Each structure stands twice: as C-alpha cells, then as structure tokens.
Amino acid sequence: MTDPKRHNHYIGGEWVAATAYSANINPSDLSDVIGEYAQADAAQVQTAIEAARAAFPAWSTSGIQARSDALDQVGSEILARKQELGTLLAREEGKTLPEAIGEVSRAGNIFKFFAGECLRLSGDYLPSVRPGVHVEVTREALGVVGLITPWNFPIAIPAWKIAPALAYGNCVVFKPADLVPGCAWALAEIISRAGFPAGVFNLVMGSGRVVGDAIVHSPKVDGVSFTGSVGVGRQIAISCVSRQAKVQLEMGGKNPQVILDDADLKQAVELAVQSAFYSTGQRCTASSRLIVTAGIHDTFVEAMAERMRSIKVGHALQAGVDIGPVVSRAQLDQDLGYIDIARNEGARLVAGGSLVTCDTEGYFLAPALFADSTANMRISREEVFGPVANIIKVADYEAALAMANDTEFGLSAGIATTSLKYANHFKRHSQAGMVMVNLPTAGVDYHVPFGGRKGSSYGSREQGRYAQEFYTVVKTSYIGS
Question: Strands, DSSP E only, in 331-420?
Fold first, then answer.
C-alpha cells in the first residue's frame, strides 16, 4: 500500500513542505486515511505573515473588478465540485453526505455573494457644519488578518471568513482546525488558481498551540477572527486587546428550544430532533435544552422517544443514514462522559445514549435524550457539543422564557408555537443573537448576520454585509473648497 498523499502549506504563492505531517482519519472508518497534512512551526507561520504583509499595499488598493472576478471563480469551482468536496467533507468530519454537500454549496455561494459585495462598496458624502467644507466617510481594508476555524464546519466557516476578508482588500493567514485539514487544503488549492497575487492568501496547518499562538501574538497581524471554544476565545481576546489588534470571536452555545402547549406536535418534534441531533449535534447553534410547557410535556416526551427510534446512525457516506459518527475519540469520550453525568444527577434517559456497531470501526453514538432534568444540572448548563439533549418541564410561557434566558450563552434560541403573541414576545425578549420561530435553532442563511450575545460572541457580526464591520476600518476625510 502506498503512503497517503502529503499536503503542504500554501505560503507566499508557493506550496511549502513541512518537517512533520499528521494523518487525517475518517471517523466513520478508522482504517481510512484521507491523507497526511503539514504541521507548521512558528517560523513558517512568521513567513506566511510576512508574505501577507508584503502583499497588502498593492492588494488593498487593487481594482474591485479583479477581486470580484477571483472570488466568483472560487465560488464557481466549489459549486461545480460539490459532490467531490462533499464526499471529502463527509469522510473527514463525519457529516452525512447530503449535509456535507449542502455545506459545500453554502461555501460556494458565500464566495459568490462576496464577489458581488466587492462591487457594492459604499460610503457617505456629507456637508460639514462649516461652510465650504464637505465630508467623505469611506471604508478601507483592516490589514493582515489571522483566521482560525473549527472542525465542525470545515469548509463553510473558512469560506465565511476568507471571502469577506479578501473582498474588502485584506490579506489572509488561515489556520484550519488540525482535526479536519482536508477541506481547508482543497479550498486553498482552488484559491491558489483563482488569480490572487502571491501572499494575499496563505494556508498554515497545525496545532493551535503552535500555529494559532503565533498568529494571535504577532504584532504584524492586524486582526484575528476565531471560531472555537470559550476558553481559547477568551485568551485570544486578552492577547489581541493587549496589543490593540481587532478581534472577532464566535464561541459556545447552550441554545434553548421552547415548546409551548399550543405548538403543532409533529412540527415541534421534527424541529427539536433536527436542532438537537442532526450533524451529530456538533453545531454551536444546536439546541441541547428542550424547554417544554406542562400541558404538552408528557405527549412531547413520548413523541420524541418514538421519533428517535427511527433515526439511523451509520457511516457518513452510506445512503439512508440520518446521523454520522462523532468526529473523534476525544469528542466521543466527552459525549459519553456527559451522558454518565446526567444519569448521576438524576435525569432520566428516554432514548439512545449507547454506542452503535456498524460494518466499519468508527465513533458511532445513538443520540441521547434525557427528561426529568432541572436547570441546575450540568447537562442543562454546559455545552456538550454532541448528540445529547435534555427536556426541562416548565409551567407556562413566562417560565419558559425565563428558563431560556437562564444561561451564560446567547447564540440561538427557538420557539414552537401557533400564537403570534408569544412568538413576537419571544423574538423581542429572548437574549440571543438569532431567534427561530417554528424552525430548528440550527440552520442559518449566508447573506444575513450570524452571531450571538453574552458568552457566545464577542465583536462584530459575521456573514452578509455586516462582515464589513470587522474586515474594514472607517476613514473620515474633510475637503475644503
């Protein structure tokens, strides 16, 4: 058997070898080695930063049509190869193939959206309070940006950081999650052929302790956009603020899905299953707290248990599979640990929670649903980031709203109801950055803002036109006659 193909860094317009490589393993089949991917040292990261710094003056003032054409080319190739890239994503991260293809399509559309944003740059031309003076308010590129992405969306999240960064004239040093470098490398390879000048985009793979730290602490990086854990995000914020670099953080969630007595039961069950368990529950917008009012509670628990019996867990590439494997052994251990914690705290296991045996060796776990849980249990407070959810019974809407807001996080929140009164009240009073009415908490569009409140997010919003708040700086110019 030949050695798996080695994949190098992309620095300064060249593919650069490393002294060490790491194997990328399929969580659906541990015998499937997708490839070996370069591991950068601090010196290589510094070289990438220098390349980006050297390319910035020309790129930041380049013509907007050239930027738009390059981004559109990237988007077109991603969409043309969505089956191939979706298969790669399913192999390395464990999403089912339909979900993986959907994520790839989203990435392609993101690049195309920002190709258009290049041509929609705008500013203000205003009269001054002083006679004979006018004011121009314009936006300029931030500079060199470090982009650090997580493993759960290995092509969509890189796309929604890279595309606006390039659209607004920045130069990029991109570090993907070490667990899923395959999609990042494939995206970098597409970008390398799209006509961007050398140094404008750079890919450096490796561990957060080496690559991430080198990016975050470099005085030549003007801003860092990070998606990942709360602990790491807070350390990045401290470092960036201390040297006055711009920082954008997307971190944890403990998202509530409220089910009211008047909800359509079938619809509520389906959106709860999708919110909590699809993508193996490995989404920051996943709902792991199902807050159910007393009148519908018992019926809802029974209907959820029945629905979960039909969920098929298996190899991500197998037709008919609803939920693929957990992404890694470490994540599986964390999920199983929280299942034990919930049992020990007195929650009742309604369905799932056991390992699943498949034809291949992988990290397969039946989604776990708990009932009879309380707000102070760890299963109700801490982010599991896996297919584990619990049902909390409350008296009425007011109690449900209070329970939904009783968390240090505030990313996404949902409500299932046929009442316009309660839907409108929840939209206004939910302490979350995104609110879903009769929809799953997980599932957002690429052309509108993404982000949360409290411990979930820090800094300006991602995606859509709001992305310019992070990737640009405002300049005010006064012009006398």
Answer: 348-351, 368-371, 388-394, 409-410, 412-416
Question: How high is the pLDDT of residue 1?
Answer: 35
Active site includes 118?
Answer: no
**Rounded mean pLDDT of 167-174?**
98
| CB atoms near residue 127 (< 10 Å) | 10
Find out whether 150 and 228 touch, Cβ atoms under 8 Å. Answer: yes
Q: What is the dihedral of CA 221, 467, 453, 173, to 10 degrees?
A: -30
Taking the C-alpha atoms of residue 237 and residue 325, their distance in angstroms, rounded to an integer, is 32
| Cβ-proximal residues to 297 (8 Å cutoff; 6+ apart), any chain | 391, 393
Report the half-sphere exposure of 21 (CA within 13 A, side-chain side).
19
The closest alpha carbon to 328, from 284, 278, 282, belongs to 282
284: annotated active-site residue: yes
Identified catalytic residue from 92, 99, 284, 383: 284
The dihedrals phi and psi of 415, each to the nearest 5 degrees, come to -140, 135
**DSSP 8-state code for residue 285:** T
In 223-286, at which residue ranges do the beta strands (DSSP E only) sit?
Answer: 223-227, 246-250, 255-259
Q: Which one is catalytic: 99, 250, 383, 462? A: 250
pLDDT of residue 481: 83
Sheet holding 412-416, edge to edge: 348-351, 368-371, 388-394, 287-293, 255-259, 412-416, 434-437
DSSP string, 441-452: SS---SSS-B--
Q: Dump pLDDT digits (tens) for 239-284.
A: 999 999 999 999 999 999 999 999 999 999 999 999 999 999 999 9
CB-based contacts of 298: which residues, under 8 Å, 6+ apart? none
* Sequence-distant (≥ 6) Cβ neighbours of residue 126 within 8 angstroms: 134, 135, 136, 137
Domains of the chain in start order, with CATH, are: 6-251+456-480 (3.40.605.10), 255-437 (3.40.309.10)
